Amino acid sequence: MNAWKITLRKTLRAALGLLVCSIGSYCTIVADVGLAPWDALFMGVSEHLPVSYGTVSVTCGLIVVVVDLLMHEKIGVGMLLDAFMVGKVIDLLRYLDVLAQPTSYVMRVVLMLLGITILCCGLPIYMGAGLCCGPRDALMVGLGKRVRKIPIGVVNMMIFATVVLVTLVLRGPIGIGTLLAVALQGPIMQLVFHITHFEPRDVEQESLIETFRKLFPVHVPDPAAAEDVTRNS
Asked: Which of 206, 160, 220 is CA-nearest to residue 185?
C-alpha cells in the first residue's frame, strides 16, 4: 500500500472518530444542563475582558497549542481536522435540529451522560489514526506521558478540575453538566480505552511535515552511484 492510500485511510479514520466526537458534543449541548469545563472557562474569561467568547476560545486554543509544542507534541492532520471539522459538524446538526431537547430535566442529564459516552467512544478512533490529536487532547496526552503511572482518564479529570477551579475564581457559569463532565468523562474515557485496549500515550503520532515527506518524497541522488556512471561512460 503506497503512502497516499495509507494517509487517506488514516485521514478517513480520524475524520470518522471526530464525527463521533462531534455527535457526542452535540448531545451535551442539546441537554443544556451546563457548559463543558473549557466552554465555561471561556465564558468566564470573556465576562472579565472586553472581548467576545469566540475570541477567548481562539486565543486559549492557540495558547494550548503553544503548550503542546513546548511538551514536544506534534501538529498534524488530526489537529487540523479537529480545528475545522468538529465545530462545523455541530453547527450542521444544530441547524438540522436532529435531536429534540427532552422536557424532563432527568432525561436531559441522561442525554448529557450519553453525549459524554459517545464523545469518549470517538476518541480511540481518531487518536488511533496516528495523525496527531486536537489541542486539548494533545495537552492531556502530553501531560499523561509525564505521569505514566497515572491512568489517562485521571489526567483528564485533573485538567478538567483545574479548568473548573479557574472558572470558579472568575465566577464563570458552572452547571450540573460541568460537574458531571469533571467527575465522569475521565472514568468513562478510561473504561472505553480499557475495553478497546487503547493507550493514547503509546500511539506514534505523525506530524504535518512527516506526512508531507511521505506523500512527496525527495530522492537525493547517490554521489557514489553518479561517480560510477561517469566512469563507465
From this structure: 160
What's residue 52's pLDDT?
Answer: 84
Task: Give residues with Cβ within 8 angstroms of 138, minimum separation 6.
Answer: 64, 68, 73, 79, 132
Per-residue pLDDT at 228: 57
What's the confidence (pLDDT) of residue 129?
Answer: 97
CA 90 to chain centre: 14
Contacts 24+ apart (CB under 8 A), 88-92: 89/18, 89/19, 89/22, 89/23, 89/26, 90/22, 90/25, 90/26, 90/29
- Residue 197: which residues within 8 A CB-CB, separation 6 or more? none
Across the chain, the runs of DSSP E, i.e. the strands, are none
Give the number of other Cβ atoms within 10 Å of residue 42's Cβ.
25
Are 112 and 31 a contacting pair, CB within 8 Å?
yes
Evaluate whether 31 touches 101 at the Cβ level (below 8 Å).
Answer: yes
pLDDT of residue 53: 77
pLDDT in tens, 112-140: 999 999 999 999 999 999 999 999 999 99
- Does the pTM surpass 0.90? The reply is no
Task: Look at phi and psi of residue 172 and say left if phi exceeds 0, alpha if psi is from -120 to 50, else beta.
Answer: beta
- Which string of DSSP letters, residue by residue, matches 151-212? -HHHHHHHHHHHHHHHHHHTT----HHHHHIIIIIHHHHHHHHHHTT--GGG-----HHHHH
